[in-house]
Amino acid sequence: MSNIPSHWPNLVKFLEEYTSAIVTKIVLWRMPETGYYKCNTDGVSKGNPGPSSSGFCVRDALRNFLYAESIRLPDGSNLLSEAKALKAGLELCINRHFMPVVMETDFLIMKNVLDNNWGMPWSIDMELKSFNQSRSRGRVMVEHVYREGNQVADYFANPDVHFAAVVISSSTMAKQVLKYQDRFVPDAVQAHNHYKFSMAWLPVCPQWRTLRRILNTSMYNMLDANQQKVKELIAYCAKCSQEGEALEIVQVVFKTNLNLLSNTLFSKDLVDPFSNAKVELKDVICGIMTVEGKPNLVDFFPILKKIDLQGIRHRTFIYFEITERGKSIEEVDVSRLPYLQCIIKETLRMHPPSQFLGPRKVERDVELCGYIIPKGLQVLVNVWEIGRNSTFWKDPLVFKFEKFWNSNLDVRVKDFELIPFGAGRRMCPVSSLALRMVPVMLGSLLNSFNWKLEGDNGPAELDMEERFGLTLAKVHPLFRFFKIADVRVRLQYRFQLIFGWASSLSEVVYI
Asked: Which whole-number Å values give the CA distances from 508 to 2, 127, 481, 487, in the listed order?
């Protein structure tokens, strides 16, 4: 023991009394602040320098994926690919109005350079100067995220990832796709093999033709029953008006449509429109639509863009030429209501029932408008983008039903600039029923009642946020706080159309 250095006992004592400092750091992805978007970026270079690529994805404050992109780059360094990812991500957010935005990168060097803590490397001088110039155009924050929280962007930045899908946003190319390319069955729909008995998902075969023929000959011969359901809808609204109850129009219209279909198929009502029973059935149906319609990496679906509508208020007047006071609209009246038809078309343009049509699969290598589409590739038609194409539509982001006044544009596949229900053999099988019933139901509601928001709120206060599923739908039902203000009508009913009201037409279509 005499050979032990004298300072060792003190060292042992120090180690025994030492308590390590525990620092907790959040490494997973965190939601941005309310009102902000978050863009995660990443860059990869194999060999550094070597084959490079960049990727980024955009999400909102509710974790919804809005956009994602993978960019192939020439050979370069990891530093350059990270800078290009930041630049491309911010430019996309500015162009798509995903602002204000939080830009996140897992490259700490880039964070320090942008915060002016370190000098700017000459190799990325041009990219970062462009990034800072774009950054000055709005509220943009740059934050560091650990790799564990940046896995989605890392996936899109991987140069070995090959996406077997192409998105069509041109009406010209959409016409070629919808005429000649068939649809395939997405992975989510095949979960329980029920798709084998559904006309919507069966391939073109004798069974599919038989089911379609039955639908065409049976479902559309229900004129009297359809009109009766509309009268029941108006009667229920009148009851709520007399009792001063707020009316959740989404539930009411859903029950009406459900009874309309159940009478067609089973000759009986499934739901009592005057009862709150069977509400769970709507939740089940909506759940199925949400699951089947969500982006699925198995199917290589692209990420849905957020529909960010402008708060534009547009006023006009519509005169319903109704022979009887408070009369429900009938199908024969629709042809005499051109304004109503224009409003519905404009709503379908801005709010199609679904952003993407059902996917098509290329059965063999084909040439499409000068591009070679390889065999096995999935083709998605972006109806939402076609309806907002500025090369065809004037003021595409503004709701103006006048676009269709004195216009021959038709929803029934005559014009591929307006294809909310698809086209070709795989067009929505009940689109004709929808185009018959939506004007009747909507016109009857407008002609029978005056409407106002609960609490006298203005249309600018309506929550226009939408969620993605098999169909586009509002996160919060647009009519949730509407209630009937007055059941009196005039022979020529003056309807004040505001932007929020007009947008609500698609709420009927969504159901």
From this structure: 93, 47, 15, 21
Residue 165 has pLDDT above 80, yes or no: no
Give which of 130, 119, 44 is closest to 80, Cα–Cα. 44
| C-beta separation of 12 from 77 below 8 A | no
pTM of the model as a whole: 0.51
Domain range list for the chain: 37-157, 220-347+396-411+428-510
| Predicted confidence (pLDDT) at residue 470 exceeds the cutoff of 60 | no
Q: Collect all residues with Cβ–Cβ distance below 8 Å to 238 and sequence separation of at least 6.
A: 448, 449, 484, 487
Kindly state the DSSP code that residue 148 receives in the 8-state scheme: G
Amino acid at 245: E
The pLDDT tens digits for 287-299 are 544 544 444 444 4
Helix axes 249-266, 279-293, angle to 10 degrees: 90
The answer to whether 444 and 471 are in contact (CB under 8 A) is no
Helix (H, G, I), strand (E, B) or coil at 429: coil
Residue 286 assigned ligand-binding role: no
Would you give the DSSP letter of residue 389?
-
Q: Do the Cβ atoms of 131 and 125 come closer than 8 Å?
A: no
**Which CATH superfamily is 37-157 part of?**
Ribonuclease H-like superfamily/Ribonuclease H (3.30.420.10)
The pLDDT confidence band at residue 305, using thresholds 50, 70 and 90, is very low
The radius of gyration of the chain from alpha carbons, rounded to an integer in Å, stands at 28
The predicted pLDDT at position 56 comes to: 92
Q: What is the mean pLDDT of the chain?
A: 70
- 14-40 pLDDT, tens per residue? 777 766 667 677 778 888 888 899 999
List Cβ neighbours of 250 (8 Å cut-off, separation of 6 or more): 477, 478, 479, 480, 507, 511
d(CA 30, CA 298): 25
Q: If you average pLDDT over residues 275-286, what whole number do you get?
A: 53
DSSP class of 495: E
**Helix segments in 244-324, DSSP class H:** 249-266, 279-293
Spatial CB neighbours of 355, under 8 Å, sequence gap ≥ 6: 304, 305, 382, 383, 384, 468, 472
pLDDT of residue 273: 59
Strand partners for 372: 367
pLDDT for position 95: 87
Tell me how far CA of residue 318 lies from CA of 20, 327, 398, 406, 459, in angstroms: 75, 16, 19, 16, 19
Angle CA(505)–CA(507)–CA(511) in degrees, nearest 5? 125
